[in-house]
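Operator note (shift B, R.M.): manual run for Beta-glucosidase requested after the automated queue skipped it. Running by hand, logging everything below so the morning shift can see what happened. Input copied straight from the record, untouched. If output looks odd, do not overwrite the archive copy; leave it for review.
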Amino acid sequence: QSADYRDSGLDFGRDFVFGSATASYQIEGAVAEDGRGPSIWDTFSHTPGKVWNGDTGDVACDHYHRVEEDLDLMQRLGLESYRFSIAWPRIQPTGTGEANEAGLAFYDRLVDGLLARGIRPIATLYHWDLPQALEDAGGWTSRDTSFAFAEYARIVGERLGDRVSVWTTLNEPWCSAYLGYGSGAHAPGHTDGAEALAAVHHLNLAHGLAVRALREVVTNDPEFSITLNLHVVRPDGPTGAEAARRIEGLANRVFLDPMLRGTYPADVMEDTAAVTDWSFVHDGDLELIHQPVDLIGVNYYSTVTVRMWDGSGEKVVADGHKDMGGTAWPGADGVEFLQQPGPYTAMGWNIDPSGLEDLLVSLHEQFPDTPLMVTENGAAFDDEVVDGGDGPRVHDAERIDYLRRHFTAAHRAMARGVDLRGYQVWSLMDNFEWGYGYSKRFGIVRVDYETLERIPKDSALWYAELIRTRRIPG
Ligand code: PNW
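Run finished. Output pasted below as returned.
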């Protein structure tokens, strides 16, 4: 059992960048406005049976129309950065060709609104809303998508490349590849391990090509990064190390190695040889993927515990993924994911801040010259709205406790020498939680989906105090 991490008073210093994060499809709504084309998440969410309750992002938090109000909210909370994503189908409705001026203008206003309030823009180019037209041509199983992505990156870089502080190419390519094409839990909902591994490579290639394209057009010396949901894998028993090697390979090293070392892990290629021959990796691709990055973005929520299944009894697969008929782990059929000890969030994800400390320290040891940023951390809980006398209140003590413990973990990692530059809490507001629709609330601000009113939860006020004082509140 880990130390409880419930510290207060720890000082993060002046330079640490405290912010919060969202993503386009999860908050914007206005899916058919100003020339936006359809994305794979429009298609997926409108397909019966894919998303809880038939929820879609059609309206979401209506952020597209409430951007000024949301900017004012960020300012009131004292955010120093805002991590948002750009919807590719607003910029290029079919994924290639002419830029759509209205789409560029929206993000132009957002970035100017942030700068006017002293908030640093952290822009993610791809948080899962692939133009549907590109999916119809093969999506991430096609290498053409990587080259289309570089074109899109160039268009956005030309427009915003004088004002964005941090560019992130992709958000969690693990999810795009394995949940999108392997398990079927995310758009486009395919269940084919070979497709998932092809998607891994084309996402890696897209990252490299986009960094190269952005570097050519930006003018303000920003930082370039990628955001990964690296898995913190705990081994169990005598076969735990073997199982952990496989899962760390598929989840972590298959992204980190090409991007930061210019190689694919040989053991992962061997483990998956029966699934794919990796012929989608062409000569020269690894050099293209291996672009210098200034920052690794870390999304952290929880941990997994693994061992090899001994073939007897029912295989345990408590990896937290909805079973849509495929697998998120091609070539790792023999791995068991054990039920984690609690406590849990409303997602059923175990709460373990030691995983964040371990992950940050491990990354720092592997890549000592690359600074880190927590680009997502936060929790869904079943919030209750109560009458506070002068209006509705959400006393989300569990979320405050979750954040306190994870900020403590981050601080401990820093005390151990990790160069951690900032922390973007997921999420600024309740939003469309992918396959779970609006049933899971991650916000530090509540969204009333009837009135679309924003109500800062107690966690938002707690976070505002942390930002103001630089210390974890008592
Ligand atoms: C991340 N999984 O998603 C995303 O970057 C956010 O958009 C999302 O809202 C947040 O975490 C909370 O879920 C994930 O199944 C979705 O392992 C699913 C998984 C991991 C991350």
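Quick read of the result: The pocket of 4-nitrophenyl beta-D-glucopyranoside is lined by residues 23, 26, 171-172, 175, 229, 299, 320-321, 376, 426, 433-434, 442 (CB under 6 Å). The longest strand covers residues 120-126.
Leaving this for review. - R.M.
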